[in-house]
Description:
Its cofactor is FAD. By secondary structure, the protein is α/β, with parallel strands linked by helices.
Amino acid sequence: MADQNEYDVVVLGAGPVGQTVADRSRAAGLTVALVERELVGGECSYWACIPSKAMLRPVAALGDAQRVDGARQAVTGQLDPAGVFGRRDHYTTDWNDSTQAAWVAGIGADLIRGHGRLEGPRRVAVETPDNQIVVLDARQAVVLCTGSRALLPDIPGIAEARPWTNRSATDSHTVPRRLAVVGGGAVGVEMATAWRSLGADVTLISRTPSLLPMMEPFVGPMVEKGLKDAGIDVRNGVSVSEMRRPDDDDPVTVRMDDGSTVTADEVLVAIGRQPLTDDIGLETVGLLPGSWLDVDDSCTVREIDGDWLYAIGDVNRRALLTHEGKYQARVVGNVISARAAERPLDTNAWGPHQATADRYAVPQVIFTGPEVGSVGLTAEQAERSGRRIRVVDVDMARVPGALLWADGYEGQARMVVDLDGEYLLGVTFVGPGIAELLHSATVAVAARVPIERLWHAVPSFPTISEVWLRLLEAYRG
Ligand SMILES: Cc1cc2nc3c(=O)[nH]c(=O)nc-3n(C[C@H](O)[C@H](O)[C@H](O)COP(=O)(O)OP(=O)(O)OC[C@H]3O[C@@H](n4cnc5c(N)ncnc54)[C@H](O)[C@@H]3O)c2cc1C
Ligand SMILES: NC(=O)c1ccc[n+]([C@@H]2O[C@H](COP(=O)([O-])OP(=O)(O)OC[C@H]3O[C@@H](n4cnc5c(N)ncnc54)[C@H](O)[C@@H]3O)[C@@H](O)[C@H]2O)c1
């Protein structure tokens, strides 16, 4: 397919986002080279979403059974680590990417294995595993989808402590007796949940006064209660100031800024991400190596002449989630094919060529016990944006379907209403079994369904979805 290494589109990074843009470009009839230096499928498939959720699903399944009288009596044991690891290894295909590589061949794209770097405008040089250099020229577009890696704090002793990042937290085959987790964000709370359920004594150290601080304020305390009920020691409002592991076989001592310490066999650092842009040749096109890539709503990199460079997925920092990166990839597929055919772009928000949902309707599920699902703006974000809003809160224990789902159900729901437009800006649910409920809220927020019309979206009785009726009733008063 390739004409002497000349392609319409060259994609750097074959994570979920790179794969999707390759697929969309091929569907538009363009030739594509997809460059990957590690495993086709990226961080998401092997060290993030897939293994973490494969490990967390058994925790939820056991918890669901334990919350239902009659079933509770039938499940008296703990999770079986060998079974959980086996399940995870199955879904990561034992860190073998041949199936995903075959998928790339199946869509008619060329997979080039190696480390890619920009070499000036519209050109990528790939250093292959056998130290050859393959030069790829892009007639239409280069798409940067190189993702992110774990951010590590610059504190004394961190190198000797050999901290776990998301990598060991998702591919380890042994359960540490004691695990300290630094960071109260998504990775911290989920991995604390998973490793505690496998038998580790877990201490979760969070710098902020509450866990998951980007979410509605009631989320953190409810997740914290769940973690504590599971036996996790949660320490809020403290920062790690140093780590010490004097010898390789010694445990690690984590010291906090309030003078307290935690001793553990492993320490997981989960304090956010940094972009994988330090060694991709950004300097050859006038951009700063190591920076997040600034894009407009068509995901075209700003300050580059000629509209040929795009950045999508984690690397543009708009929303560090697989589904949002893939959404951007679908938009960019449309943009590249329109530009290739010299068709004008539709620059309206929510149009085919503008990433919009990744700002206003981002859904996220955190797979803790209880689960958290949120989409759109929190009340605070909506207020800060200058809108006139009303906040509606409902105790989910009032919903018969929730009580039938789990005895003594504990959960909370909130919707944030735009009073001028009478549609929803954001929705948050916390409780068992809410993960699959979230998409109903995503549809309402993204489509701006008028409240009047939501009354006609009748949830089935008796399901947890009837929380929608309680929310609408509370809004109407
Ligand atoms: C523990 C954890 C759990 C998560 N769980 C979820 C979840 O449940 N749901 C969710 O939506 N998101 C989740 N995320 C976030 C999600 O993993 C990322 O948003 C997603 O992986 C981003 O996809 P990407 O394709 O942009 O990058 P990546 O998945 O990081 O893929 C980038 C690819 O580019 C390759 N690459 C990098 N540099 C080069 C180069 N120079 N040359 C060639 N190839 C290169 C890399 O090897 C990699 O394969 C989680 C993250 C973590 C850390
Ligand atoms: N289920 C999911 O959707 C899911 C699961 C895991 C990760 N992710 C995504 O992956 C990304 C990375 O997750 P993450 O948890 O690493 O980042 P995060 O940004 O979600 O949370 C990091 C936390 O660490 C804290 N922190 C920052 N610097 C610190 C420091 N020096 N010391 C102590 N604490 C510090 C922050 O206040 C924040 O609460 C996120 O964007 C997240 O959305 C998603």
